[in-house]
Specification:
Largest interface: A-B, 9 and 11 residues
Strand content of chain B: under 5%
Structural class of chain B: mainly alpha
Order of helices and strands of chain B: HHHHH
Oligomer: heterodimer
Number of strands of chain B: 0
Largest sheet of chain A: 5 strands, antiparallel
Distance between the termini of chain B: 12 Å
Radius of gyration of chain A: 28 Å
Structural class of chain A: alpha+beta
Order of helices and strands of chain A: HEEEEHEEEEHHEHHHHEEH
Largest sheet of chain B: none
Chain lengths: ~375, ~60
Protein backbone atom coordinates (compact mmCIF):
# COMPACT_ATOMS: atom_id res chain seq x y z
CA UNK A 1 0.00 0.00 0.00
CA UNK A 2 1.44 3.36 -1.01
CA UNK A 3 2.33 5.47 2.05
CA UNK A 4 1.06 9.02 2.23
CA UNK A 5 3.47 11.87 2.76
CA UNK A 6 2.82 12.92 6.33
CA UNK A 7 3.44 16.34 7.75
CA UNK A 8 6.37 15.00 9.72
CA UNK A 9 8.03 13.45 6.70
CA UNK A 10 7.63 16.65 4.66
CA UNK A 11 9.26 18.65 7.47
CA UNK A 12 12.04 16.08 7.70
CA UNK A 13 12.67 16.33 3.95
CA UNK A 14 12.87 20.14 4.13
CA UNK A 15 15.31 19.90 7.05
CA UNK A 16 17.44 17.42 5.15
CA UNK A 17 17.57 19.71 2.13
CA UNK A 18 18.67 22.62 4.32
CA UNK A 19 21.34 20.38 5.84
CA UNK A 20 22.63 19.43 2.41
CA UNK A 21 22.70 23.05 1.32
CA UNK A 22 24.64 24.04 4.44
CA UNK A 23 27.17 21.32 3.66
CA UNK A 24 27.43 22.44 0.06
CA UNK A 25 27.96 26.05 1.07
CA UNK A 26 31.07 25.15 2.89
CA UNK A 27 31.88 22.91 0.11
CA UNK A 28 34.50 20.78 1.70
CA UNK A 29 37.64 21.91 0.05
CA UNK A 30 36.43 25.38 -0.65
CA UNK A 31 38.93 28.05 0.27
CA UNK A 32 37.81 30.22 3.17
CA UNK A 33 39.08 33.29 1.43
CA UNK A 34 41.83 35.71 2.25
CA UNK A 35 42.59 36.04 5.91
CA UNK A 36 45.36 37.84 7.74
CA UNK A 37 46.16 38.73 11.33
CA UNK A 38 48.93 40.96 12.60
CA UNK A 39 49.73 43.27 15.46
CA UNK A 40 51.28 46.68 15.99
CA UNK A 41 52.87 48.11 19.08
CA UNK A 42 51.84 51.73 19.34
CA UNK A 43 53.90 53.95 21.59
CA UNK A 44 52.97 57.43 22.71
CA UNK A 45 55.66 59.78 23.88
CA UNK A 46 55.44 63.50 24.61
CA UNK A 47 52.01 63.68 23.06
CA UNK A 48 53.03 62.04 19.79
CA UNK A 49 52.30 58.59 18.41
CA UNK A 50 55.17 56.48 17.12
CA UNK A 51 54.50 53.06 15.67
CA UNK A 52 57.23 50.56 16.34
CA UNK A 53 56.42 47.80 13.88
CA UNK A 54 55.71 48.25 10.20
CA UNK A 55 56.99 51.81 10.25
CA UNK A 56 57.04 52.82 6.61
CA UNK A 57 56.88 56.54 6.70
CA UNK A 58 58.59 59.41 8.43
CA UNK A 59 55.58 61.63 8.09
CA UNK A 60 54.21 63.26 11.19
CA UNK A 61 51.31 60.85 10.97
CA UNK A 62 52.67 57.33 11.58
CA UNK A 63 51.03 54.86 9.23
CA UNK A 64 51.27 51.27 8.09
CA UNK A 65 49.67 49.27 5.32
CA UNK A 66 48.34 45.83 4.64
CA UNK A 67 47.72 44.51 1.14
CA UNK A 68 45.27 41.93 -0.09
CA UNK A 69 44.38 40.64 -3.53
CA UNK A 70 41.13 39.64 -5.23
CA UNK A 71 41.09 36.86 -7.82
CA UNK A 72 37.90 37.75 -9.62
CA UNK A 73 35.26 40.45 -9.75
CA UNK A 74 32.40 40.09 -7.33
CA UNK A 75 30.83 41.12 -4.07
CA UNK A 76 33.01 40.31 -1.07
CA UNK A 77 32.33 40.21 2.61
CA UNK A 78 35.06 42.12 4.40
CA UNK A 79 35.61 41.77 8.12
CA UNK A 80 38.10 44.02 9.90
CA UNK A 81 38.94 44.13 13.60
CA UNK A 82 41.35 46.29 15.53
CA UNK A 83 41.37 45.48 19.24
CA UNK A 84 43.66 46.05 22.17
CA UNK A 85 45.64 42.87 22.83
CA UNK A 86 43.81 40.39 25.06
CA UNK A 87 40.60 42.42 25.19
CA UNK A 88 37.26 41.85 23.52
CA UNK A 89 35.18 44.56 21.89
CA UNK A 90 32.60 44.43 24.70
CA UNK A 91 35.29 44.85 27.36
CA UNK A 92 36.78 47.83 25.53
CA UNK A 93 33.41 49.49 24.99
CA UNK A 94 32.40 48.97 28.63
CA UNK A 95 35.81 49.99 29.99
CA UNK A 96 36.55 53.41 31.36
CA UNK A 97 40.18 53.91 30.32
CA UNK A 98 40.60 55.11 26.75
CA UNK A 99 43.75 54.17 24.88
CA UNK A 100 46.13 56.97 24.00
CA UNK A 101 45.38 57.40 20.31
CA UNK A 102 42.81 57.03 17.55
CA UNK A 103 43.24 54.75 14.53
CA UNK A 104 42.04 55.84 11.12
CA UNK A 105 41.91 53.40 8.20
CA UNK A 106 41.45 53.79 4.46
CA UNK A 107 40.97 50.97 1.96
CA UNK A 108 42.15 51.91 -1.51
CA UNK A 109 42.21 50.11 -4.85
CA UNK A 110 45.32 49.87 -7.03
CA UNK A 111 44.63 53.32 -8.47
CA UNK A 112 44.66 54.84 -5.01
CA UNK A 113 40.89 55.49 -5.04
CA UNK A 114 39.50 55.27 -1.48
CA UNK A 115 36.74 52.66 -1.20
CA UNK A 116 36.08 52.61 2.52
CA UNK A 117 37.35 54.54 5.52
CA UNK A 118 36.69 54.94 9.19
CA UNK A 119 38.20 55.66 12.58
CA UNK A 120 38.08 54.60 16.19
CA UNK A 121 40.38 53.75 19.06
CA UNK A 122 39.28 50.17 18.39
CA UNK A 123 36.69 48.66 16.09
CA UNK A 124 35.21 45.48 14.72
CA UNK A 125 32.92 45.52 11.72
CA UNK A 126 31.74 43.59 8.70
CA UNK A 127 30.62 44.98 5.39
CA UNK A 128 29.96 43.86 1.82
CA UNK A 129 31.93 45.56 -0.96
CA UNK A 130 31.92 45.15 -4.73
CA UNK A 131 35.55 44.51 -5.64
CA UNK A 132 37.23 43.95 -8.98
CA UNK A 133 40.18 41.66 -9.61
CA UNK A 134 43.40 43.26 -8.44
CA UNK A 135 45.37 44.46 -5.45
CA UNK A 136 43.98 46.51 -2.59
CA UNK A 137 45.59 48.30 0.28
CA UNK A 138 44.50 49.16 3.82
CA UNK A 139 46.39 52.02 5.42
CA UNK A 140 46.23 52.61 9.15
CA UNK A 141 47.12 56.00 10.58
CA UNK A 142 47.44 56.96 14.22
CA UNK A 143 46.40 60.27 15.74
CA UNK A 144 46.92 61.78 19.17
CA UNK A 145 45.97 65.39 18.48
CA UNK A 146 43.00 67.22 17.01
CA UNK A 147 44.55 69.05 14.10
CA UNK A 148 45.99 66.05 12.24
CA UNK A 149 42.89 63.99 12.91
CA UNK A 150 40.66 66.80 11.69
CA UNK A 151 42.50 66.80 8.34
CA UNK A 152 41.96 63.07 8.06
CA UNK A 153 38.28 63.44 8.96
CA UNK A 154 37.83 66.18 6.34
CA UNK A 155 39.32 64.06 3.58
CA UNK A 156 38.02 60.59 4.40
CA UNK A 157 35.29 60.56 7.02
CA UNK A 158 32.71 63.31 7.00
CA UNK A 159 33.81 66.22 4.84
CA UNK A 160 34.84 69.71 5.85
CA UNK A 161 31.46 70.78 7.23
CA UNK A 162 31.32 68.18 9.99
CA UNK A 163 35.00 67.42 10.59
CA UNK A 164 35.28 69.92 13.44
CA UNK A 165 32.35 68.49 15.40
CA UNK A 166 33.50 64.95 14.70
CA UNK A 167 36.98 65.75 16.01
CA UNK A 168 35.66 67.45 19.15
CA UNK A 169 33.51 64.39 19.91
CA UNK A 170 36.67 62.24 20.01
CA UNK A 171 37.90 64.13 23.10
CA UNK A 172 41.65 64.16 22.46
CA UNK A 173 42.42 66.15 25.56
CA UNK A 174 41.24 63.27 27.73
CA UNK A 175 43.71 60.79 26.26
CA UNK A 176 46.78 59.76 28.29
CA UNK A 177 50.08 61.14 27.08
CA UNK A 178 52.57 58.30 27.35
CA UNK A 179 52.59 54.51 27.16
CA UNK A 180 52.68 51.54 24.79
CA UNK A 181 49.76 49.52 23.49
CA UNK A 182 49.70 46.36 21.41
CA UNK A 183 46.87 46.38 18.91
CA UNK A 184 45.76 43.17 17.23
CA UNK A 185 44.33 43.36 13.75
CA UNK A 186 42.54 40.83 11.66
CA UNK A 187 41.27 41.07 8.12
CA UNK A 188 39.25 38.50 6.27
CA UNK A 189 37.82 38.80 2.79
CA UNK A 190 35.30 36.19 1.74
CA UNK A 191 33.23 35.60 -1.32
CA UNK A 192 29.56 35.57 -0.38
CA UNK A 193 27.51 32.52 -1.29
CA UNK A 194 26.38 32.21 -4.89
CA UNK A 195 22.99 33.76 -5.44
CA UNK A 196 21.24 30.45 -6.09
CA UNK A 197 22.27 29.06 -2.69
CA UNK A 198 20.98 32.14 -0.91
CA UNK A 199 17.67 31.93 -2.79
CA UNK A 200 17.37 28.19 -2.10
CA UNK A 201 18.01 28.67 1.62
CA UNK A 202 15.49 31.52 1.71
CA UNK A 203 12.79 29.41 0.02
CA UNK A 204 13.45 26.41 2.24
CA UNK A 205 13.40 28.60 5.35
CA UNK A 206 10.05 30.03 4.24
CA UNK A 207 8.69 26.51 3.67
CA UNK A 208 9.93 25.49 7.10
CA UNK A 209 8.24 28.53 8.68
CA UNK A 210 4.98 27.75 6.86
CA UNK A 211 5.10 24.11 7.93
CA UNK A 212 5.71 25.22 11.52
CA UNK A 213 2.68 27.54 11.39
CA UNK A 214 0.57 24.73 9.90
CA UNK A 215 1.79 22.46 12.69
CA UNK A 216 0.80 24.99 15.37
CA UNK A 217 -2.64 25.50 13.80
CA UNK A 218 -3.22 21.76 13.57
CA UNK A 219 -2.25 21.38 17.24
CA UNK A 220 -4.76 24.05 18.19
CA UNK A 221 -7.62 22.63 16.14
CA UNK A 222 -7.17 18.88 16.37
CA UNK A 223 -9.89 16.82 17.93
CA UNK A 224 -9.87 15.28 21.37
CA UNK A 225 -8.74 11.86 20.09
CA UNK A 226 -5.64 13.39 18.50
CA UNK A 227 -4.54 15.46 21.49
CA UNK A 228 -1.62 14.17 23.51
CA UNK A 229 -2.66 12.09 26.48
CA UNK A 230 -0.57 11.57 29.56
CA UNK A 231 -1.56 9.35 32.46
CA UNK A 232 -1.70 10.62 36.04
CA UNK A 233 1.80 9.41 36.95
CA UNK A 234 3.26 11.09 33.86
CA UNK A 235 1.51 14.37 34.72
CA UNK A 236 2.99 14.17 38.21
CA UNK A 237 6.49 13.55 36.89
CA UNK A 238 6.12 16.35 34.34
CA UNK A 239 5.19 18.66 37.18
CA UNK A 240 8.36 17.67 39.05
CA UNK A 241 10.36 18.15 35.86
CA UNK A 242 8.97 21.66 35.42
CA UNK A 243 9.94 22.47 39.00
CA UNK A 244 13.53 21.31 38.58
CA UNK A 245 13.76 23.16 35.25
CA UNK A 246 12.45 26.34 36.84
CA UNK A 247 15.04 26.26 39.62
CA UNK A 248 17.79 25.46 37.13
CA UNK A 249 16.88 28.50 35.01
CA UNK A 250 16.59 30.61 38.16
CA UNK A 251 20.06 29.53 39.29
CA UNK A 252 21.53 30.43 35.90
CA UNK A 253 19.83 33.83 36.03
CA UNK A 254 21.21 34.52 39.52
CA UNK A 255 24.66 33.48 38.36
CA UNK A 256 24.40 35.95 35.49
CA UNK A 257 23.28 38.73 37.82
CA UNK A 258 26.15 37.87 40.15
CA UNK A 259 28.73 38.13 37.38
CA UNK A 260 27.25 41.41 36.15
CA UNK A 261 27.15 42.93 39.62
CA UNK A 262 30.75 42.01 40.32
CA UNK A 263 31.69 43.04 36.77
CA UNK A 264 33.21 39.65 36.10
CA UNK A 265 33.92 39.50 32.40
CA UNK A 266 33.12 36.15 30.81
CA UNK A 267 34.40 35.20 27.34
CA UNK A 268 30.82 34.98 26.09
CA UNK A 269 28.41 37.53 24.60
CA UNK A 270 25.79 38.51 27.21
CA UNK A 271 22.90 37.41 24.97
CA UNK A 272 24.26 33.86 24.98
CA UNK A 273 24.34 33.78 28.78
CA UNK A 274 20.68 34.72 29.03
CA UNK A 275 19.67 32.05 26.54
CA UNK A 276 21.89 29.42 28.22
CA UNK A 277 19.72 29.63 31.34
CA UNK A 278 16.61 28.85 29.32
CA UNK A 279 18.31 26.03 27.44
CA UNK A 280 19.59 24.55 30.70
CA UNK A 281 16.04 24.54 32.06
CA UNK A 282 14.67 22.88 28.93
CA UNK A 283 17.43 20.25 29.06
CA UNK A 284 16.72 19.45 32.71
CA UNK A 285 12.97 19.17 32.08
CA UNK A 286 13.31 16.99 29.01
CA UNK A 287 16.02 14.76 30.51
CA UNK A 288 14.05 14.25 33.73
CA UNK A 289 10.86 13.42 31.83
CA UNK A 290 12.63 11.08 29.45
CA UNK A 291 14.23 9.23 32.36
CA UNK A 292 10.88 8.91 34.16
CA UNK A 293 9.07 7.94 30.94
CA UNK A 294 6.78 10.93 31.01
CA UNK A 295 8.16 12.80 28.00
CA UNK A 296 6.28 10.92 25.29
CA UNK A 297 2.49 10.93 25.41
CA UNK A 298 0.56 7.66 25.43
CA UNK A 299 -0.70 8.18 21.91
CA UNK A 300 2.49 9.67 20.50
CA UNK A 301 4.76 8.02 17.95
CA UNK A 302 8.09 7.82 19.78
CA UNK A 303 10.07 6.91 16.70
CA UNK A 304 8.93 9.94 14.65
CA UNK A 305 9.69 12.32 17.49
CA UNK A 306 13.11 10.81 18.13
CA UNK A 307 14.00 11.08 14.44
CA UNK A 308 12.90 14.74 14.45
CA UNK A 309 15.05 15.44 17.51
CA UNK A 310 18.05 13.78 15.90
CA UNK A 311 17.58 15.74 12.68
CA UNK A 312 17.24 19.07 14.49
CA UNK A 313 20.32 18.25 16.58
CA UNK A 314 22.29 17.35 13.45
CA UNK A 315 21.18 20.53 11.70
CA UNK A 316 22.38 22.63 14.62
CA UNK A 317 25.66 20.71 14.76
CA UNK A 318 26.36 21.28 11.08
CA UNK A 319 25.52 24.96 11.32
CA UNK A 320 27.83 25.34 14.32
CA UNK A 321 30.66 23.53 12.51
CA UNK A 322 30.28 25.89 9.57
CA UNK A 323 30.36 28.85 11.98
CA UNK A 324 33.63 27.54 13.42
CA UNK A 325 35.11 27.12 9.95
CA UNK A 326 33.83 30.55 9.01
CA UNK A 327 35.47 32.12 12.03
CA UNK A 328 32.23 33.66 13.26
CA UNK A 329 31.85 31.46 16.35
CA UNK A 330 34.62 33.21 18.26
CA UNK A 331 35.38 36.87 17.68
CA UNK A 332 37.61 39.04 19.74
CA UNK A 333 38.24 36.14 22.10
CA UNK A 334 34.53 35.76 22.85
CA UNK A 335 31.85 33.30 21.92
CA UNK A 336 29.37 35.10 19.70
CA UNK A 337 25.66 34.60 19.11
CA UNK A 338 26.57 31.99 16.50
CA UNK A 339 27.50 29.63 19.34
CA UNK A 340 23.77 29.25 20.07
CA UNK A 341 23.63 26.48 17.47
CA UNK A 342 26.39 24.64 19.31
CA UNK A 343 24.46 24.95 22.56
CA UNK A 344 21.33 23.56 20.90
CA UNK A 345 23.29 20.70 19.36
CA UNK A 346 24.77 19.90 22.78
CA UNK A 347 21.31 19.95 24.31
CA UNK A 348 19.96 17.48 21.74
CA UNK A 349 23.02 15.28 22.20
CA UNK A 350 22.44 15.16 25.97
CA UNK A 351 18.77 14.27 25.45
CA UNK A 352 19.61 11.59 22.92
CA UNK A 353 22.15 10.11 25.33
CA UNK A 354 19.55 10.04 28.11
CA UNK A 355 17.14 8.24 25.74
CA UNK A 356 19.75 5.60 24.93
CA UNK A 357 20.66 5.12 28.59
CA UNK A 358 16.99 4.75 29.51
CA UNK A 359 16.47 2.22 26.75
CA UNK A 360 19.47 0.21 28.00
CA UNK A 361 18.18 0.43 31.57
CA UNK A 362 14.73 -0.83 30.51
CA UNK A 363 16.23 -3.71 28.57
CA UNK A 364 18.31 -4.69 31.59
CA UNK A 365 15.28 -4.46 33.90
CA UNK A 366 13.22 -6.48 31.44
CA UNK A 367 15.81 -9.29 31.32
CA UNK A 368 16.02 -9.30 35.14
CA UNK A 369 12.23 -9.60 35.32
CA UNK A 370 12.33 -12.52 32.92
CA UNK A 371 14.98 -14.19 35.11
CA UNK A 372 12.81 -13.64 38.23
CA UNK A 373 9.80 -15.17 36.57
CA UNK A 374 11.77 -18.23 35.53
CA UNK B 1 5.89 -1.33 49.41
CA UNK B 2 5.59 -3.74 46.52
CA UNK B 3 2.12 -4.65 45.30
CA UNK B 4 2.46 -8.39 44.77
CA UNK B 5 -1.31 -8.88 44.67
CA UNK B 6 -1.51 -6.78 41.53
CA UNK B 7 1.32 -8.71 39.95
CA UNK B 8 -0.23 -12.07 40.72
CA UNK B 9 -3.70 -10.95 39.56
CA UNK B 10 -2.16 -9.79 36.30
CA UNK B 11 -0.20 -12.99 35.87
CA UNK B 12 -3.33 -15.04 36.57
CA UNK B 13 -4.92 -13.52 33.47
CA UNK B 14 -1.68 -13.99 31.52
CA UNK B 15 -1.36 -10.27 30.90
CA UNK B 16 1.93 -8.47 30.48
CA UNK B 17 2.44 -5.05 32.04
CA UNK B 18 2.02 -3.47 28.60
CA UNK B 19 -1.24 -5.38 28.00
CA UNK B 20 -2.66 -4.26 31.33
CA UNK B 21 -1.47 -0.69 30.71
CA UNK B 22 -3.17 -0.60 27.31
CA UNK B 23 -6.44 -1.93 28.73
CA UNK B 24 -6.40 0.52 31.62
CA UNK B 25 -5.20 3.47 29.48
CA UNK B 26 -1.91 4.27 31.19
CA UNK B 27 1.77 3.75 30.38
CA UNK B 28 3.59 0.49 31.07
CA UNK B 29 5.92 2.36 33.42
CA UNK B 30 2.95 3.41 35.55
CA UNK B 31 1.85 -0.22 36.03
CA UNK B 32 5.48 -1.11 36.77
CA UNK B 33 5.76 1.72 39.32
CA UNK B 34 2.53 0.59 41.06
CA UNK B 35 3.73 -3.02 41.27
CA UNK B 36 7.12 -1.90 42.62
CA UNK B 37 5.46 0.36 45.16
CA UNK B 38 7.07 3.48 43.71
CA UNK B 39 3.75 5.14 42.88
CA UNK B 40 0.41 5.41 44.71
CA UNK B 41 -2.39 5.47 42.12
CA UNK B 42 -5.49 7.60 42.51
CA UNK B 43 -8.77 5.95 43.36
CA UNK B 44 -9.93 6.27 39.74
CA UNK B 45 -6.91 4.37 38.47
CA UNK B 46 -7.32 1.75 41.19
CA UNK B 47 -10.93 1.20 40.12
CA UNK B 48 -9.94 0.98 36.44
CA UNK B 49 -7.29 -1.65 37.23
CA UNK B 50 -9.70 -3.66 39.35
CA UNK B 51 -12.32 -3.55 36.62
CA UNK B 52 -9.88 -4.92 34.03
CA UNK B 53 -8.60 -7.65 36.37
CA UNK B 54 -12.07 -8.54 37.65
CA UNK B 55 -11.12 -8.02 41.28
CA UNK B 56 -12.22 -5.74 44.10
CA UNK B 57 -10.24 -2.87 45.59
CA UNK B 58 -9.67 -4.90 48.76
CA UNK B 59 -8.32 -7.84 46.76
CA UNK B 60 -5.55 -5.77 45.14
CA UNK B 61 -4.91 -2.55 47.05
CA UNK B 62 -5.75 -3.30 50.70
CA UNK B 63 -2.79 -3.87 52.97
CA UNK B 64 -2.89 -7.16 54.91
Amino acid sequence: MRKKLTFGSVTAIILLLILLLCLFRYDLGRKPGYRSTWSHVIRMDAGKVTEIEHLETEDTIPASTCDFGIDKDGEYRLRLTNLLQGKSLDELQNGKDPIGFVTGYVIRDKNGTPLLSGSGDYFSFETTLPLKKGLYEITFSYFADESTFCEFAKEYLCGTAFAGDFTRDIGFTSLPKAGAWTMEYSLSVKTPDPVWIRIAILILSLLLTISFIVFLLSCATKGEQFKERYDERQELEKGKGFRYAFFTSLTCTFFLLYTETLQISLPVEPSILYITGGLAGITVYAAYCIWHESYFALNQNKKTLMISLVLIGLANLIISITSILNGTMVQGGRLTFHSLNLLCATMFLVLFTVMLLKKASLQKASSENDDDEE
Amino acid sequence: MKNLKLKSARAALDLSQQDLADKVGVSRQTINAIEKGDYNPTINLCRAICKVLGKTLDDIFWED
